[in-house]
DNA sequence: AGCGTTTAGATTGTGCACGATGAAATCGCG
DNA sequence: CGCGATTTCATCGTGCACAATCTAAACGCT
C-alpha cells in the first residue's frame, strides 16, 4: 500500500511530467497540451465534427467545447454549423492553424529525446499502456461492480 | 505526427483511464484520487508537514492547500500549526481518517486486476516509467533550452 | 537589536476533466 | 403528418494542476 510500489502513481507522475515538458515546448505556440492534441487530429484529418474529436481523444463535450472556444478565440480554428445537419459543428483549421504545423514540427522528436528511452522501450511501453487502457476501459464499461 | 503513434498520448489516456477507475472505487469513501494519494502517505508515515506531502506527490502548495482543506472539511485529516515553527503546518489523520484505511484495503488489488497485466509487465512498466519521469524532470530542470 | 533573506504555506487566476443538465435539430414510428 | 426518442453540442459545478503573487515566521549577518 506504499506510494511508489504502485504503477498508478508512476503513471500519474509520468503523465504530469510529460505534460510539463509539453507546456514548455508549446509555450511559444500559445497552445496547451490538450489543444495541441486537437491540432494533431486536425492536421491529420482536416475538418472534423466535435464528436469525432471527442472520440479520437476520448474526451467529452464538457471538456472539448470550452477548449475549442479558446482555440477559436486565438484564431487557430473555426467552428461552423453544418448546413445539412444543424446539430453538428465542424471544426476546421484557419490559415494560422495550418501554419502552426511548421512551428510544431520539432516537438515529437524533442519529446522522444527527453524521455530517454530506447526505440524498443518506447514501442513496448506504448503497447502495454494501450492494453492497460483497454482493459481498464472494459472494466469501467461494466455498469456496477468491477 | 499521428496521435496513436506517440507514447505521450498513450500515457495521457492510460492515466485518465486509471483515474476514472479510482473514481469509481473511491466514490464510496468520498475521496478523489489525489486525496487518496495523500491518505496513502499519511497511513504510511503518520503526521507529516505539507511540504513533505508536496515532495512525496510532486505537487505544489497551490494544489495541495485547497485539497487538504477539503480533506479537513470532510473530517479525514486535521491541520495543526507546529508550535516550534509556526510557519509549518502538520497534517495528521483523524480517527475517521485512520478508519478509512480498512475501507480502502481492497483497492490496490482491484486496480491491479483491472489493468490486466502480468506481474512482470507491471514491474517492468513501473521501472520504465520511473526512468522516463526522471529523464523528463531532468530536462525540465535545465532552465532554458532542452 | 535591526533588517534583509529565506522558508512554509495560502491565495488567485487559468485551463483541463468529468458528471449532470439543458437545448435544438433530426430521426423513427404509428 | 405528429410526436416522442435520439443525436449533437453547450453550459454549469466541482476538483485538480500549475504559475504568480502574497503573508508571516524564522534565520543570518552585522
Oligomerization: homodimer
Strand composition percent of chain A: 5-15%
Radius of gyration of CA atoms of chain A, rounded to a whole number: 18 Å
CATH uppermost class of the largest domain in chain A:
Mainly Alpha
**Count of helical regions of chain A:** 7
Strands of the widest sheet of chain A, in order across it, are 1-3-2
As residue ranges, the low-confidence spans of chain A are none
Q: Helical content of chain A, roughly?
A: 55-70%
Sheet of most strands of chain A: 3 strands, antiparallel
Secondary structure tally: strands of chain A: 3
CATH architecture of the largest domain in chain A: Orthogonal Bundle
Amino-to-carboxy terminus distance of chain A = 20 Å
- In CATH terms, the superfamily of the largest domain in chain A is Winged helix-like DNA-binding domain superfamily/Winged helix DNA-binding domain
- CATH topology category name of the largest domain in chain A: Arc Repressor Mutant, subunit A
Structural class of chain A: mainly alpha
Largest interface: A-B, 56 and 56 residues
Mean of residue pLDDT of chain A? 95
How many domains comprise the coordinates of chain A? 2
Structure description:
Two copies of one chain form a homodimer. Chain A has 146 residues and is mainly alpha-helical. The first copy, chain A, has helices at 7-26, 33-45, 50-57, 61-73, 95-103, 107-115, 119-141; strands at residues 48-49, 77-82, 85-93. A three-stranded antiparallel sheet of chain A has the order 1-3-2. In chain A, a hairpin with a 2-residue loop joins strand 2 and strand 3. In chain A, helix 1 (7-26) runs antiparallel to helix 6 (107-115). The longest helix of chain A has 23 residues, at 119-141. The model of chain A has no long low-confidence stretch (mean pLDDT 95). Chain A binds a DNA duplex (30 and 30 nucleotides) through helix 1, helix 2, helix 3, helix 4 and strand 3.
Amino acid at each position: 500500500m506504499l506510494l511508489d510500489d504502485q504503477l498508478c502513481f508512476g503513471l500519474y507522475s509520468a503523465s504530469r511530467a510529460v505534460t510539463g515538458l509539453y507546456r514548455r515546448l508549446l509555450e511559444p505556440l500559445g497552445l496547451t497540451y490538450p489543444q495541441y492534441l486537437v491540432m494533431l487530429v486536425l492536421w491529420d484529418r482536416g475538418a472534423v465534427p466535435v464528436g469525432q474529436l471527442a472520440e479520437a481523444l476520448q474526451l467529452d463535450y464538457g471538456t472539448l467545447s470550452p477548449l475549442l472556444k479558446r482555440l477559436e478565440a486565438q484564431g487557430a480554428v473555426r467552428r461552423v454549423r453544418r448546413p445539412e445537419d444543424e446539430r453538428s459543428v465542424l471544426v476546421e483549421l484557419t490559415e494560422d492553424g495550418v501554419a502552426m504545423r511548421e512551428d510544431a514540427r520539432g516537438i515529437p522528436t524533442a519529446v522522444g529525446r527527453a524521455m530517454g528511452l530506447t526505440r524498443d522501450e518506447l514501442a513496448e511501453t506504448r503497447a502495454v499502456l494501450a492494453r492497460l487502457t483497454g482493459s481498464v476501459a472494459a472494466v469501467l464499461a461494466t455498469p456496477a461492480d468491477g
